[in-house]
Structure prediction request, 292 residues.
Amino acid sequence: MSHVTEEIASQPACWRAAARLVAEGGAGALPRPGERVAVVGCGTSLFMAQAYAARREAAGHGETDAWPASEMPAARAYDRVVLISRSGTTSEVLTLLDRLRAPTVAITADPGAPLAAAAGATIALPFADERSVVQTRFATSALALLRAHLGEDLERAAREAAQDAPPPAGALERTQFTVLGRGWTVGLAGEAALKLREAALAWAEAYPAHEYRHGPIAIADERSLVWLLGDAPDGLAAEIAATGAQVVHEAEDPMAQLVRLQRLAVALAAARGLDPDRPRHLSRSVILEGSP
Prediction:
């Protein structure tokens, strides 16, 4: 069994551990209601930042922006900046941290990492650390922590994610994949498409659901699978099905659906003779020459 397969299966337990950490007071450094917040990450962590930012603001907790670490304007006024990095060694995150003046809190798997040492406060999730290059459980556990801190109950999501259902019938025969989201699930859609690209070298894209009609639907045909996360715009699923594409739209918690898409990525990699533990051109952490 691959490392990534084991790590995908462990996610419900990790989410429950993250929720306990919040319940026991271990996440007190996270943003307070009313604060103006920036959430920062790279790659998978950026998609989790986008999901949390949309979720927090929609819940009325305060203005919340998500930034790639390389693009955030360091002089912009925020009450708190949350930095997400599994390894705690990502160059762009450390470079940004050195320029920030707002209070900072890091979420990382390694409490001994440079990010943990440099941030104003750190929330470590060592139980969610991974051997894989391809991120799964750390990212979703960070999001579980943040959702729990917003007051959400994650038990339903954990139960649904534990159901090891096979990929949708016919999915492994498709050659083009699109994941659509709305609100906080736009970030999850981006992450799901990234997993399909990383693990299976698949042609995978992600869009806000309302944007799909504005051009991207042109590529949909009988070779496509389009997965809608969360609520779908009225009539969109029928329009996509009319192209010949396979449409998947489930009622599960979108984070549990992300787990299903992770499993699809691994299954697709196996069907293509690829090793999901060794994605090409990738490393576990991006450390740039000359960075902190």
